[in-house]
Amino acid sequence: MTITFTTNDVEVSLLGNTIRLDLLNEQISKIYFVKRFRDVLSINTPKGQMYIFDYGVAISWGIIDSKKSQLLNMVQEHVSETSLQKDTERFHFKIIENASVSMIDDTLTLPDNKTMTLLAVSHALAQSAKLGRFEVMAERTIKDNAYLSHTLAKTGKIPLSRKKLSMLRGALFSTKSDILLHFNLLDTPEFFWEYPEQEQKYLTVSKYLDLKPRVELLTMKLATINELHEMLAAEQNHKHSSFLEWIIIILIAVEIVMFLID
User: Fold this and answer.
1) What gap in Å lies between CA 207 and CA 212, rounded to an integer?
2) What is the rounded CA–CA span in Å between residue 170 and residue 153?
3) Which of 41, 160, 184, 225 could pair covalently with 164 via S-S, beta carbons 3.0-4.6 A apart?
4) Confidence of residue 141 (pLDDT cuts 50, 70, 90)
5) How large is the greatest C-alpha to C-alpha distance in the chain, in angstroms?
6) What is the pLDDT of residues 156-175, one digit of tens each?
7) Neighbour tally for 176: CB within 10 Å
8) Are 156 and 118 in contact, with CB atoms under 8 Å apart?
């Protein structure tokens, strides 16, 4: 399908954690032509196109702001764990007949404005947005907990209660598991198993967006978070062991006192 555009902007919006595509499809198909491609809804408007990814990202092509806001409000009703701060990024695109897909200075060059071309490119843009959220989560977690290793190196212990250590371990585990649960989203999408002729377009844009090196760096950050988690676990076990040792010492002391009294 060839699409008519109102603008030459493509906007990437990270709306939340996941989007319930079945319910959204049921609602929005009453107004627009909708087609589903695995984990993506393709919404064709009179002058623009929007792709909704089930992992919380919406990509709008050539849609004026008023119409885009209307569509996103409908989508937002089906978002779980809505982002408190919306992450939005805007690029420009141009159509040059028979050109190869390319991306230079945040401007996309496309050979046509067909649904499949836009969807192939949208996969890379959506992954980049989701990866960006993971990067922020990992960096913030590492930064907020950096003092733990410094304190341990300086004093030989972490001056926190067992309850506080448990809470920190829980927060670290939550961040790590949330990222790992969605880590497969950063692989080459299964969409290209069915449409391999579109994969090169995706690869070109993903290379410009540095998806592969960013994923590798995220993996290293996850390893750092895991080390922090293990360090807290060791410290918590040490505190528990020390607590039990003191109980034993007190019980022995009590027993000795009772013996002497008798």
Assistant:
1) 7
2) 22
3) 160
4) confident
5) 102
6) 666 666 677 777 777 777 78
7) 20
8) no
